[in-house]
Amino acid sequence: MNVPEYDDASYNNHAAKRRRKLLMNRGEIRRWEKRVTLQGLTLVPLEVYFGERGFAKVSLALVRGKQEHDKRQAIKQRESKREMARYKR
Q1: In angstroms, how far is CA 27 from the centroid of its own chain?
Q2: Beta strands in the chain (DSSP E)
Q3: Which of 37, 40, 33 is nearest to 67 (CA)?
Q4: How far is CA 67 from the centre of its chain?
Q5: Which residue from 31, 30, 36, 28 is spatially nearest to 64, judged by alpha carbons?
Q6: Would you say the pTM of this structure is higher than 0.90?
Q7: How many distinct helices (H) and strands (E) make up the chain?
Q8: Taking Cα atoms as reference points, which of 81, 50, 43, 88 lies closest to residue 65?
Q9: What is the pLDDT of residue 14?
Q10: Do 62 and 32 contact (CB within 8 A), yes or no?
Q11: What is the pLDDT of residues 9-37, one digit of tens each?
């Protein structure tokens, strides 16, 4: 994860890009890992915020990717919006 350096800090600043520790129970991590590898789900960060003690907290979600027909539907909608905007001009 990339947490940019704080410009007004001293020379003793943290490394912007480094591995961060995931504070979860081992069983919970294994359960999520199993669902990602076996079921083909993806782990997506929803929001990142800083707690009271300065720790960065991340809300995670397991999501399923779009099917092929869903992608075609989204492309069709995007193109129709683009054409409508073109006609309005």
Answers
A1: 22
A2: 42-50, 56-63
A3: 40
A4: 19
A5: 36
A6: no
A7: 2, 2
A8: 43
A9: 80
A10: yes
A11: 778 888 888 887 778 899 999 999 999 99
Instruction: Name residue, tokens 């054409």.
Output: 83
Separation of alpha carbons 34 and 28, rounded Å: 10
Q: CA 31, 46, 3 angle in degrees (round to 5)?
A: 100
Residue 5: strand, helix, or coil: coil
Task: Identify whether the C-beta of residue 21 lies closer than 8 Å to the C-beta of residue 7.
Answer: no
- What are 45's strand-pairing partners? 60
Which tokens belong to 88? 């309005």
Q: DSSP class of residue 24?
A: S
Identity of residue 54: G
pLDDT tens per residue across span 58-84: 889 999 887 778 788 889 999 999 999
Query: Distance between CA atoms of 35 and 22, rounded to whole angstroms?
Result: 17
List the structure tokens of 83.
């054409």
- Could you tell me if 62 and 43 are in contact, meaning their C-beta atoms sit under 8 angstroms apart? yes
